[in-house]
């Protein structure tokens, strides 16, 4: 595993020192276009997010709801490739060297690309690590070895259905933070944050000293403040994607993303 001094760990520790949750934002690479994704992610950072997840678009995103599926489809029809995702990471990290940039991806693209090669290329691009929602920890040793060699954090996902024993197995293998899915089901904005989230954070913390960050469903400052009251980080994705989808122009979309990021950044400071 990576050390506590990884870029991601430093950012999460800095937020904790300010007595607030970190704000982590997600957008898929290649959406609305390959260069447009770089601009959109920069708008997130300008709005005040602490860390960024860049999604690797997938043809069968089984854990993602219709909003992210739509964005992935746009990216795939635009010809996005894994090398373009890595180039997006490189451009973002070059412009923002202090902001941790993670790739969130299903396992199949990494396996096809080559685990060791992907870890090396992600590190070379300045990436801070990977979020791997569908990689069982029992099958992760080869990846974890490669990630450790290249200083990458590996974030695993836990869900309300995870039993306590299972939580311990997952958190023992991960680094950076633990991604706690606030609700059962796929990603997407919701009128209310799932009431299972706080209990999941409590149970997860009983197994690890890693920060626990909550995602799936947060779409406004009030929900961000609600989650920030009990979690170490608030993860927002679909709400940003929806802003870009709803915008009348790409420029309007970037402005809308920046505005929402600023609202959410204020929200995580209200706990």
TrEMBL record:
Its EC number is 4.2.1.20. It is an enzyme of class 4 (lyase). Pathway: Amino-acid biosynthesis; L-tryptophan biosynthesis; L-tryptophan from chorismate: step 5/5. Coiled coil: none annotated. One of its GO terms (molecular function) is tryptophan synthase activity. Keywords: Amino-acid biosynthesis, Aromatic amino acid biosynthesis, Lyase, Tryptophan biosynthesis. It catalyses: (1S,2R)-1-C-(indol-3-yl)glycerol 3-phosphate + L-serine = D-glyceraldehyde 3-phosphate + L-tryptophan + H2O. InterPro entries: Aldolase_TIM, RibuloseP-bd_barrel, Trp_synthase_alpha_AS, Trp_synthase_suA. Belongs to the TrpA family. Tetramer of two alpha and two beta chains. The alpha subunit is responsible for the aldol cleavage of indoleglycerol phosphate to indole and glyceraldehyde 3-phosphate. This is Tryptophan synthase alpha chain. The gene is trpA.
């Amino acid at each position: 595993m990576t050390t506590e001094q990884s870029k991601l760990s430093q950012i999460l520790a800095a937020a904790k020192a300010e007595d607030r949750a970190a704000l982590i934002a997600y957008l898929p690479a290649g959406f609305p276009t390959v260069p447009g994704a770089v601009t959109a992610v920069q708008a997130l950072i300008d709005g005040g997010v602490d860390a960024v997840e860049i999604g690797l678009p997938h043809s069968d995103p089984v854990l993602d709801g219709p909003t992210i599926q739509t964005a992935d489809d746009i990216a795939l029809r635009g010809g996005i490739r894994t090398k373009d995702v890595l180039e997006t990471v490189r451009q973002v990290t070059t412009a923002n060297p202090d902001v941790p940039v993670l790739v969130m991806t299903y396992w199949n693209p990494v396996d096809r690309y080559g685990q060791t090669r992907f870890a090396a290329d992600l590190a070379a691009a300045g990436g801070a690590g990977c979020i791997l929602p569908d990689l069982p920890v029992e099958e992760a040793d080869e990846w974890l070895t490669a990630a450790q060699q290249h200083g990458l954090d590996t974030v695993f996902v836990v869900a309300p259905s995870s039993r306590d024993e299972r939580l311990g197995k997952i958190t023992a293998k991960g680094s950076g933070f633990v991604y706690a899915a606030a609700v059962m089901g796929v990603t997407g904005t919701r009128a209310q944050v799932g009431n299972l989230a706080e209990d999941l954070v409590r149970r997860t913390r009983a197994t690890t000293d890693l920060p626990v960050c909550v995602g799936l469903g947060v779409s406004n400052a009030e929900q961000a403040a609600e989650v920030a009251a009990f979690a170490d980080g608030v993860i927002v994705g679909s709400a940003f994607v929806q802003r870009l989808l709803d915008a009348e122009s790409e420029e309007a979309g970037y402005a809308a993303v920046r505005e929402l990021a600023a609202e959410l950044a204020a929200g995580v400071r209200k706990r």
